[in-house]
């Protein structure tokens, strides 16, 4: 059985990244937990992926003109990144500050948005919202380019308050009024995008944000109890200092990194399951001047995080990417990337294309009879493939323990190599019986490879493996 430090490191890397193979967990454990947290929070200290080399393999990643190519590239990034928290934050913000391919002027605009999430996602929430308000993908997605002085479109103003910053309410009370929505929409008039330049003869040009002062409502506005000639930047400055903003960010971070919360629409009338944890995060939000990285430092070093192992259902992206990192496949672009990314879709998470601006419902809502079969079949196929380098590494590590293994040692060894998984006593006894059923476990020869693969397949099919 893995020691506590190793198990805790495996937990951190599942949540702050997409999991890690045994050797990496050993190295990080030797480095220390707090040092690893700091490294994760400073992704700039680690090398970026070499995108120019990636583009040589996949021409559809160059143009970024279609959904499937973009999904492939992002999946590849998640599998191979040396900056796991940076990529995890892009996934986090994509599920909160949503745009969708189904309503996208030009697909590459979403990739530009994700780069913003990567490079600003651990910084100031104020600056992130300011960037979002100027993001061409979002301006088009929520129709702010169709909002004009004297003829406002409320889509952006409403979703900014409801889904991107405050939430409908907290502690049974409303966080904003309809008048606040209208005032916000008026403040953002004139925040629009340039007209698209024709694609020929040089290809498609990216749409850019512009401010049109002639289309901006300069009249006095009242928002959240304050009155003035507000523009969009003023609105965001007022939003981020509200208690509702601190609660909104804290609950989203808790739900994504710690334990599954009720779905977002229920938050107004449903208190957090751990009010003390949320209060800690809210306090850090204000103490750090709305800094997300500072909130995560508090979160990752807290007892409530360390004690939350296996309290979250893995998302489809986490399931697929974590499995690939474990088995060591797709470490370079190659045929099969499209099928791999479609697996994430079939499990219920169509990356870049959430079902609504609300994003995906998470937790146990990831699981139904169809998606569960997809998960089990996919993970079992991968860990059962003894030709994959990560699976071979597990086999060799267990083989090094001696010429024979007990059934109990095989079970515990496989659990450790999957990332120090916990299972119930009942599940453990069933796995031990399975290991015993085929007789003595000799570590020499190809039969041992198959017995390890069979055990790994049995483990990823358990209820426990659904959780991270």
Description:
Helix content is 54%, strand content 4%. A hairpin with a 2-residue loop joins β5 (221-223) and β6. The chain has helices at residues 4-16, 22-31, 33-41, 51-57, 59-63, 67-80, 84-96, 108-120, 125-133, 136-141, 155-162, 178-187, 232-240, 243-257, 275-287, 292-300, 303-306, 316-327, 337-346, 369-383, 389-399, 407-417, 425-436, 446-460, and strands at residues 169-170, 173-174, 191-193, 209-211, 221-223, 226-228, 404-405, 441-442. It has a domain at 389-466. The strands form four sheets. The chain has a two-stranded antiparallel sheet with strand order 1-2. Strands 3-4 form a two-stranded antiparallel ribbon. Strands 5-6 form a two-stranded antiparallel sheet. The chain is mostly helical and 468 residues long.
Number of strands: 8
Shape: globular
Q: Provide the structure class.
A: mainly alpha
Mean pLDDT: 95
Q: What percent of residues are in strands?
A: under 5%
Order of adjacent strands in the largest pleated sheet:
1-2
The value of Rg in angstroms is 24 Å
């Amino acid at each position: 059985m893995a020691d506590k430090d190793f198990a805790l490191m495996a937990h951190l890397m599942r949540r702050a990244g997409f999991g890690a193979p045994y050797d990496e967990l050993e190295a990080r454990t030797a480095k220390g937990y707090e040092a690893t947290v700091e490294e994760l929070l400073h992704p700039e200290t680690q090398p970026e992926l070499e995108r120019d080399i990636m583009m040589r393999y996949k021409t559809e990643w160059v143009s970024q003109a279609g959904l499937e190519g973009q999904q492939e590239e992002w999946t590849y990034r998640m599998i191979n990144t040396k900056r796991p928290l940076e990529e995890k934050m892009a996934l986090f913000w994509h599920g909160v500050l949503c745009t969708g391919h189904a309503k996208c002027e030009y697909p590459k605009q979403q990739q530009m948005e994700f780069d913003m999430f990567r490079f600003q996602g651990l910084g100031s929430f104020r600056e992130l919202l300011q960037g979002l308000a100027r993001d061409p993908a979002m301006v088009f997605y929520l129709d702010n380019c169709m909002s004009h002085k004297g003829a406002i479109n409320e889509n952006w103003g409403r979703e900014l308050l409801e889904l991107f910053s405050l939430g409908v309410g907290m502690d049974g009370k409303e966080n904003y009024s309809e008048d606040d929505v209208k005032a916000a929409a008026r403040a953002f008039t004139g925040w629009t995008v340039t007209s698209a330049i024709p694609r020929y003869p040089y290809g498609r040009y990216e749409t850019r944000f512009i401010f049109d002062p002639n289309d901006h409502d300069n009249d006095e506005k009242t928002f959240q109890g304050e009155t003035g000639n507000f523009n969009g930047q003023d609105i965001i400055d007022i939003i981020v200092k509200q208690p509702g903003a601190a609660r909104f960010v804290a609950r989203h971070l808790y739900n994504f990194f710690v334990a599954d919360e009720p779905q977002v629409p229920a938050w107004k009338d449903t208190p957090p399951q751990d009010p003390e944890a949320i209060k800690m995060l809210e306090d850090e939000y204000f103490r750090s001047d709305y800094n997300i990285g500072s909130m995560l430092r508090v979160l990752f070093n807290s007892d409530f995080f360390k004690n939350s192992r296996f309290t979250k259902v893995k998302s489809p992206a986490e399931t697929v990417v974590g499995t690939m990192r474990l088995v060591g496949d797709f470490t370079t672009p190659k045929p099969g990337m499209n099928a791999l990314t479609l697996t994430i879709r079939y499990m219920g998470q169509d990356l870049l294309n959430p079902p609504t601006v609300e994003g995906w419902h998470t937790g146990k809502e990831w699981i139904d009879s169809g998606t569960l079969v997809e998960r089990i079949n996919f993970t079992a196929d991968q860990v059962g493939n003894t030709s994959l380098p990560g699976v071979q590494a597990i086999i060799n590590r267990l083989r090094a323990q001696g010429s024979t293994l007990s059934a109990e040692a095989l079970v515990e060894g496989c659990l450790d190599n999957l990332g120090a998984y916990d299972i119930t006593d009942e599940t453990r006894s069933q796995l031990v019986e399975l290991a015993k059923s085929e007789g003595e476990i000799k570590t020499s020869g190809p039969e041992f490879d198959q017995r390890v693969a069979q055990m790994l397949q049995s483990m990823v099919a358990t209820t426990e493996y659904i959780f991270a």
